[in-house]
Amino acid sequence: MNWDQSTWDSSFWDQPSDYFNPPKPQNNRTKMKRQVYYPSRIGDQVNWLDNYAVKLPLHGPTLGVIAADITASVNDAKYANYVLGTWLTAVRNFSPSTTDAVDDVLTGSGTGAMVLPTFTAPALPAGVTAALPGTLNRIFALIAKMKLSSAMTDAIATDLGIIGAEQTEKQVPKFSAETEQGAGCQCVRLRFAKYGHMGVYIESRRGTGAWEFLAIDTESPYIDERPLLVAGTPEVREYRMRFWDKGTPNGDWTDVVKVTVSP
After folding, report:
1. How far is residue 254's CA from residue 109's CA, in Å, rounded to a whole number?
2. What digits encode the pLDDT tens for the residues 182-195?
3. CA-to-CA distance for 142 and 159, rounded, in angstroms?
4. Burial of 197 (0-12, 13-18, 19+ CB in 10 A)
5. Is residue 4 within 8 Å of residue 216, measured between CB atoms?
6. Which of 33-42, 222-231, 243-252 is the least confident region?
7. Could you tell me which CATH number the domain at 171-261 has?
């Protein structure tokens, strides 16, 4: 989908919240793609969740997140933190006693009947309630929405912990340009990757002319079907892109890509 001018519905954040909508029934667990900003080590995940729970109430209102969604997401983070930290640690500490009990049952000695150990889960932290399955799925979805807010800055994203090493390498779109034969002349096919952004903002320059707006495109590829400036005369076309979100071009420009278009 593409536009030749920047338009977007400003009521994006005014839609009713669907944070508490239950997931559709399914037989298998949803496979979740771990975001690049989310740590791989459990210990680091606990720290990340703790930071997110503290910082979301500070930055959420600025980014247009309603109070109910902030509260729900903070509880998701705190519950996931409890499960990965306090609860999982207790389970692992309890595990050796189960091995000992099995050994006693099978090869032990004594005159009294066995009393098997019973695991008692640690209490939830004050103010935290057990959450529905999918805490990280919901957290990642909310982060994706916040990243589309025009109020999002690098400073806020860093404070929330939602900028990863891979993302810092993808601050511009990646694209290629190839000529192909069109109905009346050669066209240029621009294939691009927008790395989770809404779309790309494309500019072009021909000959000695100035850079000019070409299009906004949300789905790759974009086809440049403009006729030659001088009929029958080949011309060099230059292209560059930057990200486009919620009606606003943003980020740095890509490197310039040149293509020669023939009659």
Report:
1. 74
2. 766 789 999 998 88
3. 16
4. buried
5. yes
6. 33-42
7. 2.60.40.10
